[in-house]
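Q: What would this chain look like folded?
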Amino acid sequence: MKLTGILKPDTAGTGRLRAAVLGDVMRTAWPVLIVTAWLTVQAADIPVIGCASDGQLGPQPAPEKRKISLPIDESLSSRVAYYETASGAGVLGPNGWNCFGTYGSNGSSVYVARGFLKSEDRIGPPSGLLRGPAVQLSHIYGGTSGRFAVAGTIFRVFPEFHAAGRALLGHDELRSGFPTGPFAGDTVTHRDKHIAVYRTPPRRKGLGTQSSLAANGAPIAGAVLLTGDTPDLLYLAVRLPAGMEVIARVILDQAIARAEPLALRGSDRYNRKR
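A: My prediction, written as structure tokens:
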């Protein structure tokens, strides 16, 4: 099951946002919102910024700009935008930033950064070529060449799915090179057995640097979710400047809230098959 487009926004005029602050996860950085209870939030109009992309079939033009409604506090609506590629992959980010997408047999990604972005900046994560504030959302396919990244994350984060990781790799000689357990220094908090949020500290290798974001003096936070029959992986990494803590929180919460239903159904189907 390919995940392209699962984060397309709803167009309804109202929405509900499930959220509670996990201050312990972010410590001195910024708190993470994760789904625990329903709160009603009036939807606000958010600009959709089209992102050019490049991949197996060549360059793809940016979709046309438009507006959509998302369950975000109206006071934040002018500070965020929804960045979307032609394949339908999309993620929230600070309004006025730049974006670019990549796609191929291993999955698809959308990158949002304050600086200029071009295709050679992201030659397959983890490239570490985005050294400043940035957001990356990737859909990684477990049934294709993306299986190595999916299996590696399973062994690091999802102990109940180790059998799935071994099944993705197939040959015993491939399995031996994958470490198990969290990166040293990472804080990982499970929402469920197939959903986790994380924080990678400044200047450390961790889940946050398994992306195009290079380690620097700021932490990287995000989420990883297993979904689909294979399973596949949804990967989010967020590093924003000081003063954008609320924006970072909304980016993370929206990504989890929109992907969680597929993660729940996908993992249940997989478990029944096993």
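The longest helix spans residues 245-273.
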